[in-house]
Amino acid sequence: QVQLVESGGGLVQPGGSLRLSCTASGIVFRIASMAWYRQAPGKQRELVAAITSAESTNYADSVKGRFTISRDNAKKTLYLQMNSLKPEDTAVYLCYSSVATGYWGQGTQVTVSS
Asked: What is the pLDDT of residues 16-40, one digit of tens each?
């Protein structure tokens, strides 16, 4: 019943920008803490950015100043604006909700390459 669907991934050149979206269903979105994680081949999944229901945010040091997490409760959508992208940002980006047992989206691929 719970579903998180990411979109917006793709190929971008270093220094470029990309905006990811995650649309949720089956949860009371407005009271849910949400986050973006990423996982690159051979690496552990890592927290990129998180946002609470009160819109308090935190970011991984590696993306501070470049990425912005936000939410639109009316649209039940989570966003990640990614600017000044670097090759090391290449990964599958996954949407996460902390409700109940925790839920994950299927992921969207972001590739930063020239």
From this structure: 999 999 999 998 999 999 999 999 9
Strand pairing partners for 95?
Answer: 36
Quote the pLDDT of residue 112.
98
Return the number of other C-beta atoms located less than 10 Å from residue 36's C-beta. Answer: 26
Bridge partners of 46?
Answer: 38
* Phi then psi dihedrals of residue 35, to 5 deg: -155, 160
Distance set, CA 72 to CA 8, 31, 35, 78 (Å): 16, 12, 13, 6
Phi, psi of 75 (to 5 degrees): -95, 0
Report the largest interatomic distance among the alpha carbons of the chain, rounded to a whole angstrom: 41
CA distances from 23 to 64, 78, 84, 112 (A): 24, 6, 24, 23
What sections of 8-53 are H helices per DSSP?
none
Residue 1 pLDDT: 87
Give the angle subtended at the CA of 49 by the CAs of 80 and 52, to the nearest 5°.
Answer: 95
